[in-house]
Amino acid sequence: MIIIVASLSFVFYSSLKLQNIADRRFEDEQFLQEIQMHLVDIQAPLQNYLTSYSSSSLSKLLYIIEILNESIPIQRKITANESDLIKREISFLLDNYLSQINQIIEQKRGHRVKEYTENYQNLYNLYNYITDRINYVSLLGFRVQLEEYRNFLSLFRQLQVYSLALILLATAFSFTILMQLINNIVTPMYQLSLMAGKLSNGEFDIPDMHFNSVNEVNQVSEAFNDMKQNIRQFVEELHEQKEMEQEIMTERVRNLKMEQMLKRMELYTLQAQMNPHFLFNTINTGVQLAIVENADKTAEFMENLAALFRYNIREKQFFVPLRHELDGLKSYYNILKIRFPKTLKLVLNVQDDLLDKYSCPSMILQPLVENSVLHAFKHKEGIGTITVSIVFNDPVLMISVHDDGDGIPAETIKELLASHIHDYQLSSKVMGLENVIQRCYFFYPDHDDVINIKSNSTEGTNIEIRIHTEVQPCIKL
Q1: Ramachandran sector of residue 123 (left: φ over 0; alpha: ψ -120 to 50; beta: rest)
Q2: Which residues on adjacent β-strands are paired with residue 452?
Q3: What is the pTM of this model?
Q4: Whose CA is closest to 134, among 21, 45, 37, 27?
Q5: Average pLDDT of each block of 10 consecutive residues along the chain (477 residues)?
């Protein structure tokens, strides 16, 4: 590259030198041509002025004289070069020529006809002589320039041949070195690619590869050997870890199955609990009605009681349609109306299109209403009202039971809302309202807002169950 750059630089320098010589010769020739052109331009206005004494001709003549005077060089060096000596002579002749023109103009203004006529003839002769000298120096310069150009062209052609030879030699030398370097790099990289293909197929017992190449390739090969060893060790560790994970997963599945069985047993225990006080009271009421009343009311009472028992026995699923749950509640309320005909009122605010569209945990409405009947109206005079509402606020199904009774103390609410779903020692004591709360926690363990209780002594108690319809319960039905 250095040889090529040096050769091209020398060629470029020689070209610039040739160009400068040509430019200089061209400038000299242009200067002489401009001088000759101005001399020609002077003749016509000078003749017009001398013959007609025209002021316009005089103005034009003076303008050309001024231009010609500015074109004449002030610096006139003496050299041994014939062309430069002739140019110096021409400059002095031009000074004399312009001086004579000014003299003729003064003689014309003084009406000295004889004098300016003779001077004009001499001026014309000087004009012809200056023109001959300009033509001679132009021809002389062209000859000199032609001889210089021939010599320079011969030298330039020799330089081109020499530069071309250097370029070819440098190119061949560079190509030879380049091919050797490429071979030293490509061959090891090809071997490494073959090793990588074997590694990708799981062959880790291939021998290490060592090359005598450039430092970077040698470092890559050593790093590749280390990587092969690390991959082999890592794969062995993965196999061992996979076997251990397989054993752990087997044990975990076994534990999950046992935990699932415990959860189902717990849920069955919670769902199977009933309040024996209600059963005893309803049966005693039926016996009393059978004694003191006619068979119609007894039949109605026993019919509702049978429907309620059938619902309790039939609904062994964890989730049931809202309509089934509401039918069971109505049967339960029909029985309560016989016991409390003038002191209890049940209000249902339910949209009928929701009853067959959504489901809820079984046996949640009856225990909540029963809780209000047993505890909310102990100190209330008049009619106690229980309102059951079911609304859908996408995607949450909200079920609420509200009574206008005495209310529940805050400490009791806090204890009721505490999750005991995995405290198996308390399972036998979970009854009524707590049964519903714990089952809700069981079905939706990730939603703390699944059930909420608001209560005070003036407005009663409101229990709200929020069922997220887009979330699957933890027990698959």
Answers
A1: alpha
A2: 464
A3: 0.42
A4: 37
A5: 73 72 67 82 83 82 84 74 79 86 84 84 87 83 69 73 80 85 79 78 74 74 79 81 84 67 55 51 64 64 65 66 90 84 90 90 89 86 92 93 91 84 41 83 86 90 93 70
* pLDDT of the residue at 35: 83
Q: Looking at residue 306, what is its pLDDT?
A: 64
What count of other Cβ atoms lies within 10 Å of the Cβ of residue 256?
10
Q: How far apart are CA 269 and CA 264, in angstroms?
A: 8
| pLDDT in the model for residue 425 | 40
C-alpha distances out from residue 445 to 273, 284, 442, Å? 21, 40, 6
Which residues on neighbouring strands pair with residue 389, listed in sequence order?
Answer: 349, 400
Contacts 24+ apart (CB under 8 A), 281-286: 281/339, 282/335, 282/339, 285/338, 285/339
CA 69, distance to chain mean position in Å, is: 75
Residue 364: which of 416, 408, 312 has the closest Cα?
312
Q: Given this model, what pLDDT does residue 420 score?
A: 61
Q: By C-alpha distance, which of 172, 403, 370, 206 is closest to 282?
A: 370
Q: What are phi and psi of 275, to 5 degrees?
A: -85, 110
Question: From 1.20.1600.10, 3.40.50.2000, 3.30.565.10, 3.40.50.620, which CATH number describes the 273-468 domain?
Answer: 3.30.565.10
Contact assessment for residue 333 and residue 301, using Cβ atoms and an 8 Å cutoff: no
CA distance linking residue 222 with residue 228, whole number of Å: 10
Residue 189's Cβ-count burial label (10 Å; 0-12, 13-18, 19+) is: middle
- Report how far residue 123's alpha carbon sits from residue 101's, in angstroms, rounded to the nearest whole number: 8
The type of residue at 185 is: I
Q: Please state the φ and ψ torsions of residue 457, each to the nearest 5 degrees.
A: -75, -15
Length of the chain: 477
| CA–CA separation, 350 and 33 (whole Å) | 117
Helix (H, G, I), strand (E, B) or coil at 334: helix
Q: What pLDDT is attached to residue 438? A: 85
- How far, in Å, CA of 268 to CA of 317, rounded? 10
Contact 470, 446 (CB under 8 A): no
What is the domain class of 2-172 according to CATH?
A: mainly alpha
**Domain boundaries in the chain?**
2-172, 273-468
**Strand locations in 297-437, DSSP E?**
319-321, 344-350, 359-361, 384-393, 396-403
